[in-house]
Amino acid sequence: MGASNNMQVVTTIEQLKTIVNDIKRQGKTIGLVPTMGYLHEGHLTLASTSKVENDFTVMSIFVNPTQFGPNEDFDSYPRDLERDTKLADSVGVDVIFAPSVEEMYPTNGGISIRAGRQSEILCGASRPGHFDGVLQVVAKLFHLAEPTRAYFGQKDAQQVAIIQTLVRDFNFPLTIRTVPIVREEDGLAKSSRNVYLSEEDRQQAPAIYEALQMAREHFLSSFHVEEAIELAQNHINQKTSGRIDYLQLLSYPDLAEITTETEQFLLATAVYIGKTRLIDNIIFSNKG
Amino acid sequence: MGASNNMQVVTTIEQLKTIVNDIKRQGKTIGLVPTMGYLHEGHLTLASTSKVENDFTVMSIFVNPTQFGPNEDFDSYPRDLERDTKLADSVGVDVIFAPSVEEMYPTNGGISIRAGRQSEILCGASRPGHFDGVLQVVAKLFHLAEPTRAYFGQKDAQQVAIIQTLVRDFNFPLTIRTVPIVREEDGLAKSSRNVYLSEEDRQQAPAIYEALQMAREHFLSSFHVEEAIELAQNHINQKTSGRIDYLQLLSYPDLAEITTETEQFLLATAVYIGKTRLIDNIIFSNKG
């Protein structure tokens, strides 16, 4: 474990299915770690967790065009398969599935999966169709890798909530596992997009997580949603040159307005620092 | 084979998953025969085919509300689980999965599967949302029964074409198998809905298949689409008191307009005889 284990890199569905069918025939469990590559510690934590919990770990590396909007960064999204391969091998991934766009989308009969009301808020409000694209590629990857467990970072809290709903309402035969946000020492959530930040922007960025922590504390002592949100907004506006896209407190995982019944809370934000959109969140309960 | 084999009838997802997981662990193949019950010879042929091709056969019996329109016959659709159980047992089905509506749809997070352009013609033109509902229940059943092969009757040609597209474009790990239309001695395609026909209507109904055969012969000798269609329409109008909903000649399985490139043809019709809507089709090639 940990050392090189003859990791394979495959690019075709046929190659992946041959491996998956062989593993399934042996009655072994499969962990799937779907990524868009340019791996950081967050991804490697997902893979390490899968390693511990499953006999065999598949990591997909695919920058999925259908989840990018027309004005988003599909073309400039960072890619480095050689580096990713070494990193994945170092944590014991058994196979990397790195298909081309043509391999994943050779045909289009017009059938689509539509994420519903959960996708119309938070990140979804400014990214119409994004979560439809996420569900499309996730459903395909689930069918291709046939995992026992699939691993997602809690950083994309809305994504996790929507994928959990897909698995539940469409009875996918697998379990979604989430791992906590991995942070830099100063609190900034790790992200592939952090490489876009200028030095100055990078120094301001930790204020995002500070703001979320302040809002959580205020909410838990006062139960006053608007005040908690305002406190966090002010902190971000004072400490950064960023523009807040949203900063919201919702029930989790329903992503609905909180009521006196709500037990789990999601405090989530997206902030443009320069041209870079950073997201962060805290999930917490009122049970202390 | 054929004799009683201790068929089980289960109504909960948990019971089905226990059986499926056990069969999969043994490395055995599973055939799934999705039905809405009130079994006739067509269904039994699907089950018998599954029996031959797989180690274990699951038949689902579920009248799926999400594929019925508001003015359709969901409430009056015939149901007889006791009779179905005996018939399924007689052809060697291993387990019947007969869930309640609540068991199949306990939650609704708002995610949907939308059948696209293939669903806007033929039966879909007069049944908005019908194929969305079909894909919803079929995706759920595929995930629940995890079949190696799933069996559908060619009678529902549009349904088969759309489900084939779902499996192809979303990489479901299974094969769709179709079996030919089973007919009465006078040519009428067997259907659960035939029990609705009055004696007079029943005597007229074979004209539908006669019309399709006439159109095929005319098309293959003349390659004149409009003439072939008109010939069939005239036959139905002269021989029955029915009203033609549609009668079309399309490419198969794309369900697009035929061109000089088309090799496989679908000649499909839906006719209201009295209040009963009957469908029939012929799939044929120009290779004789």
Automatic annotation (TrEMBL), chains A, B:
One of its GO terms (biological process) is pantothenate biosynthetic process. InterPro entries: Pantoate_ligase (IPR003721), Pantoate_ligase_C (IPR042176), Rossmann-like_a/b/a_fold (IPR014729). (R)-pantoate binds at residues 67, 159. ATP binds at residues 36-43, 153-156, 182, 190-193. GO terms for cellular component: cytosol. Keywords: ATP-binding, Cytoplasm, Ligase, Nucleotide-binding, Pantothenate biosynthesis. GO terms for molecular function: ATP binding; pantoate-beta-alanine ligase activity. Its EC number is 6.3.2.1. It comes from the Bacteria. Beta-alanine binds at residue 67. The active site is at residue 43. It catalyses: (R)-pantoate + beta-alanine + ATP = (R)-pantothenate + AMP + diphosphate + H(+). It is found in: Cytoplasm. Its main location: cytoplasm. It is an enzyme of class 6 (ligase). Pathway: Cofactor biosynthesis; (R)-pantothenate biosynthesis; (R)-pantothenate from (R)-pantoate and beta-alanine: step 1/1. Belongs to the pantothenate synthetase family. PANTHER family: CYTIDYLATE KINASE/PANTOATE-BETA-ALANINE LIGASE, PANTOATE--BETA-ALANINE LIGASE. Homodimer. Catalyzes the condensation of pantoate with beta-alanine in an ATP-dependent reaction via a pantoyl-adenylate intermediate. The reaction proceeds by a bi uni uni bi ping pong mechanism. This is Pantothenate synthetase.
